[in-house]
Structures
1.
Amino acid sequence: MTAPAAGFDRTATTLFDPAQTRGRGRIDLYRSYRTAASLGWKMEANWTDPVLFFIYSVAKPVSAALILVAMLEVIAGPSGREYRGFVVVGSALWSFVISGIAGLAWSILDDRERYRMLKYVYVSPSDFVVVLLGRGTARIAVGAMGAAITLAIGVVVLGVPFDPVAVNWPLLVIVMALGLEAIVVIGVILAAVCLQTRQEAWSYPEAVAGALFLVSGAVFPLSVLPMAIQAIGLANPLTWWLEGVRHALFPAGASAVGGPGSLYTELTGQAAPDSSTIVLALLATGAVVTLGAAVAFRWSERRARDRGLIDQTTGS
Amino acid sequence: MTARAFVGRPSAGPREAADWSRGRIVANNLRSVVGRAFPRVRGMVREPSWLLFEILLPFLTTCSFVFVYRALRAPPEYIGFVVLGGAMTAFWLNVVWMMAAQLYWEKDQGNLELYFAAPMDMMSVLFGMAIGGLVMSGTRAIAVLVVATFVFKVQFTVDQWGLLLLVFLLTLAALYGLGMVLASLFLMWGREAWHLTQVLAEPVYFVSGLNFPVAALGRLGALALATIPLATGLDAMRQLAFEDVQPVFLPPEAEAAILVLMTVFFVLLARFMLRNLEERARREGRLTVRWR
């Protein structure tokens, strides 16, 4: 007679302990997150030359801002310089959006298509979403660096007016926290999409970010859009995040949400939203998107499991 | 007994079997081009999600820049500049993502050694990639151009259709020639390739004057005209498609000549680099080591 496997033999001295399979709750979640974040950073950055990595990280957001500044300069000349703050802040913050969305989606594609590790990560005891969030953290950190450098270049080189004393710091902290949460959940939605698609989905995060750029008031006020698209913009948490950051940095600056011809002003009668309206709107729209992301990810995960997509590799 | 090898015809041995006629080499390379283009075209049919992500969403990005100009009350031809730039980015992104970085990814997937071992020219593989990619990026470019022209009522004033078409084709030739050069470089640089794809997007859009006349950038614009096919092609097409574009450095005829030079230079350079790479691959065996 063969001996029973360890853990199944009730007479053995080392008894199977079912409690071990339950894990240690939050401690395990934190450990998974920390390990995934550290792995993400190592894959993203620590193998490369720091100077080159710095150039790579800031070249994209700085150039994006410079495109808009050049457009302003070509059309409006010196009279357009008052809008520089508006476009520089919008395009700098957009690097958070691109990196936040791409971080999670690319983790799926990296692990499935390049390293072919997704199936092993998936069957490991770690929570899959927590691992993805950890992997995405490194890219958000890179995006944050790009945003900070772009803002610094905007202030120092492009003459964007910035007064640290006038900044509404509590509002800035609140909207940044809520905004980052909104970006990450949009990233979760895109990760759900990438679980279903083939290798060429590398460019999808950027395409989604580009589309959101239109309805977020990032570099132009929503009032220039048709009313129906303005409504989509008002339901988008990124619009309120950008509005909140601008409101905190430049309290007397132009609003992307309100103003003549805007749906917001037509509905509320106010020229621009105040701080509390911004925070409430960001909370409400963020909650809706979070709920949508949770549903989308669970559905996608189940479908990927059913159809064997987790260890699928593609190419064209 | 004489060793016999069969490669489409009976032969006395491997040496004779490897002695191909010129016609056979050309036919084999043409088959390689078709073979490499096929999965790209077929993949488009198999998974239609690219219609949303490769056409509709990038179109919305182009719309964003149109609305920037609308917010600034820019002259109508500037809306046309954005639309033209939006259409041409499709080709640039295709060159960066599906040409330049492709050999590096093929290495990661384990296909690269098969390419080097197969009896074909690597240029055929890259040419096949270019043709397959052109189908997708061409569809995207046409969609952006046509839809945006109708939605934003862009007025084109073209007097020299022949020259415009020639400049467009020369731009594509130079762009894909550059893509072939970058494919070899990315393969040598390894993991840095990933970061380079990022650097080749917005920074290149900026120096190429994607949404505005490149001459507005002064010396930087002139340098871009001399080195980046996207900048040269866009500036020439802008001058040929719209009236009174200002400021400009060179007339479109001169820019077409620059594009011819760029095409010849990039294709020859790509050929030289690929030969070198192939030799290294066979001698050192390092190019098939993954994830570096």
Note: Chain B has 13 helices and two strands.
2.
Amino acid sequence: MSQQEETRRAKYVVCSVCDIGCQLRAETEDGRLSRILPHDNPMLARNVCFKGIAAPQIHNHPDRLRVPLKRVGERGQDQWEEITHEQAITEIAERLRGTIDRYGPESWAVSTSGWNTQTASGMDRRLMNLVGSPNWISGVSLCAGNTAAVNRLTYGWFPFPDLMNTNCIVLFGHNPRKHSWTPIYNMIEAARARGAKVIVLDPRVSEQAEVADLHLRLRAGTDAAMCLGWLKVIFDEGLYDAEFVKDWCVGFDELRARVDEYPLERVEAITGVDRELIAEAARMYATADGAVIPWTPITDMQISSTSAIRLHSILRAVTGNLDVVGGDVLNAPNPGWLTEAELQLHDSISPSQRAKQLGYEKHPVYTYRTAEMLTGPMERVWGQRWMDQVMGCHMANPSEVFRAMKSGDPYEVKAFFVLGNNALMSYPNQHQVHQAMLNQDLVVVQDIFMTPTALLADYVLPGDVFSERSFLADSWGWSNRLTLSEGPVEPGPEVRSTFAFWRDLAHEMGHGEEFPWPEYEDLLDHRLSPSGLTFAEFAETRIMDAPPPSFRKYRSKGFATPSGKVELASSILADLGFDPLPYHREGPATDDAFPYRVFSGVREDPFFQTGQRNIEVLRKRAPSPKVFIHPTDAEREGLTDGSWIRLETSTGNVVAKLAVKESMLEGHLRVPHGWWYPELRGKAELAGAFLSSDAVLCSDGDEFLDYEQGTPHFKGYPGRLVPIEPPTEMSTITLEG
Amino acid sequence: MAVRSAFDNLRREARVSMFGRLVGRLFSRKTTGLDGFVKRQLTKRAPTVEHDPELDRVEQEMRGRTGKLG
């Protein structure tokens, strides 16, 4: 093979532009990523979207951060001095030590997104635990991580849907599309082609709803009531697996009594869906020979989120769809791989420090408090005390952390590290997050672009991208596949992986002995040690490792709950002082002042979360944020498609273009997630971080939070529209497309 | 509901587990022997991949451009 052919040879990569992790191939030219190709394995070749294809524009972008920066002006003024990585680490360690000496280790908080960073391998929590800080937060607290923690209340684990063999798929607002969550979209398409039924529950006629067998247009934020209605039908008509319930469930009678409080007339009144349609959907799900309720971010972000997620779990269990072929499967961890939790040293942080975790008392479901209650069951079933999935089972509550950062209540949090995560715009009550960051003694950000969060930092460190790192993607214990990603490109001399950041900081902080891996590949060798393979041997022999599926594993060791059974009435929730049974709680009411139900946190195809607004080829596909409205509502307001509006809530307001859509449910407004304007850097405060960001709209006051997790109610909070002139500060691409 | 006899469960689980083992072979780097045989067989069964013109358009639009807005 010639040198030119060798450099052009495609390497296998796992895309991390979004969080689904498509397996692709990457070609390089002159040491740069030049092209993304679909996988050459026909089973994987359809899993590619235009975000992945655009990776060369992202990875080679002229605005990529390449050198560590130290703030020299006021916080947020965007004035920097270039320094070396070594200087940055030395100074960060010194200042962090100073903060810890003054306020205690719990005064250090970290926010991260594993999807973006990929190489942390638990090193962040490892150092935090050695130092004694429990205050780790992530966007997974309102997206999949919290689902994992809540699922564990019922049957001790978070299942993955067997879409390959199922006969019925229930999508609670989830809307996988050709260019968003592409592999799941493709699996749903394949299931549909072989005759599987699809039920969609969504206020709007989404792409999935358009082709669904049944579409239930429920009022936003009423998932729990809908599930209680389904259970009413299933119990009354005897459509449940009585033998499984008898042998493997506890709390059935109490649950049934609770369900009886939700006759279909009541559920119809709450959800706005015709009772006959509710019953038809419940029957379709319950009578399918193998049915799944895949994870959905929609249910994660509601005022009754804990109950609604638990109800998904309960529906799976009582209909006989748990851990069976075609149902939702409890994947055992890959036996050849050390999990992140094993590397995180959760027994190294004292119980008294764990108890200081913010959220531990008030909203404990995904905090250490609940994880501690599950250590025994986890060890019995999975062989380890601190099992974790989707990073979501030992977290602090973000709103509690930002409140402490802002006000020192209940104690001071004065150092905030953010890795691969635009934290300013990723949690509710953005104005509080902003004030919290302004009140810090030390803010450190590692990212690939200068985000609004990075603009508030003392140090900004350049992170790497997927073409610049070799790693194994493991989906954080949700599935048990290990997928190879070969980094074909050398990162710049001052660019570091997340692993390298934590390794170097740990050494500087005096914990080097606990971080004995010189390179990331050494840590991968360690993680693969149960398999008997090194990373090099893995990469040489395979592109993926997936243990053959196994089912009904509970027969040998039971479920990882205190009772060993599926807890329809949760003993953990009862012990924590909450209602052990699921319920519907009404969200904040609309009124004359705020007549619309706003649902936010919605993804658009060209972007992942707050990213990619600076990538030309993607921004062209969605040049401006668009609020969707039903034609009847638009006509009443005197508004037309394409006009500019200000959407106001009791907490904040955003400007956006209006899109009049028949697909919307009357009385609802749909707001896209994560909008800022990189092109306005230097022209608008924090590059327009407050102009159109949905994170300013939703409060994190008690009346907007789920009790048990403290998750925000992004799906159906009150708002109103005000017509405005096109904002003059916007760029041409925003105004004209 | 997915209420199945013990035999039916075992039959389905065996089939899916066997398929899972074969799929594992699909992701090895070997192209000969059993791995190669499995690859050839499963490749035949794989769905046809229709080309998505939108992906081509993105590629074309990127050519010669840095990616910077404006």
Note: The two ends of chain A are 46 Å apart (CA to CA).
